[in-house]
Specification:
Blueprint lengths: L2 E11 L9 E2 L7 H16 L6 E5 L9 H9 L12 H18 L7 E10 L2 E9 L18 H7 L8 E5 L13 E4 L6 H5 L4 E4 L1 H20 L5 H12 L8 H12 L5 H10 L15 E6 L3 E6 L8 E4 L9 E4 L11
Antiparallel strand pairs: 1-2, 1-4, 3-7, 3-8, 4-5, 5-6, 6-7, 9-10, 11-12
Amino acid sequence: MTINIHGIAYSPVGNDIDEEWLQSSRDVTIGDGILDIFREYLTTIINKRDTQKVGIGHFDDDENDGGIQHWLDEIKEMELDLEEDSENYDRFEELSLKLANRLKGEMDARSSDGVLFTILAERGGEQFVGLLKLDLNDEQRSVLEEDTNELKYEELNRALPEAESLQKGGTYPVFQSEKFGLTGDVKFLQEDAPSEYFEDFLGCLTSSASLDQMKTIINGLSDLKEEKTGAGLRPDEIREFESVITSVGDDIATNEDVHEGARRILGEDYEEQEVEDMLYEQNEANVRIDPDYSPKSVVLSLDDDIEVSAPISALSEDRLVIEEPNAEDGQWTVRIHASSLDRSVQK
């Protein structure tokens, strides 16, 4: 589906950047080649499947009255035009600079300097806001005309990452697609090393994509069980938890489903507040898991150098049975039931 861009504003961001300026499409001409770059970025964010590179943001309505969500709503409803001035441009530039300054406030010395682009675009008749924090591969001034800060296509095309390597970007609101069913207010994509500061600057509660969130929660529950009993989750307990999450069918699994799974596998050791505390400590207080993108396999590590990988579905079918050692001999027993065997040597 074609994305039309109606307005762009950009400003330098970084922990130690002293200069404060903002340029927008009101005063500079942005050519088709540059627009194509940004269309590809926005398309990548919207279409990106539910992976560990994706996050979802949720605004707290009580805390955002007149706050950042209000800013984004304002931008989303503006009438802007790349070809001519508009009375909305003053406010668009003001809010774009506010966003850039907030982002700078969240960055520290470890954060890469870059440029924040605030974009008003339209897809399928619905306007949305795109936010791109792009780290330039060359000196910042080389992509900008020295006197006007106008973007230069040849240098920009060379300095920015390819769309599939987008560093940090987000869209408001979230678009549903064939490969993405999570709901929320903001969809984040960070193809480079995920950084909390990029999500924190919008002031919303965040949760990981389904795969990463599910893995984090299973590990958290395993640690919780080990604290209680001295042993982590058994394979059959992992399977039991997974069956609770996938039982929601076409819906999205939430905190309530996590608690139901925890009750089943922890039994009398289950305490609601402890599970809530675990989710909070793992930064997964807002659970949104699409069962279609939950983990499909588990890797069991013995003595840190022997690994057994199996589909989760096999853990409850007696195809893979792992007997834990007793206190006397410390010997693990792994029984695998299969009808064929292939051998391969790997690095």
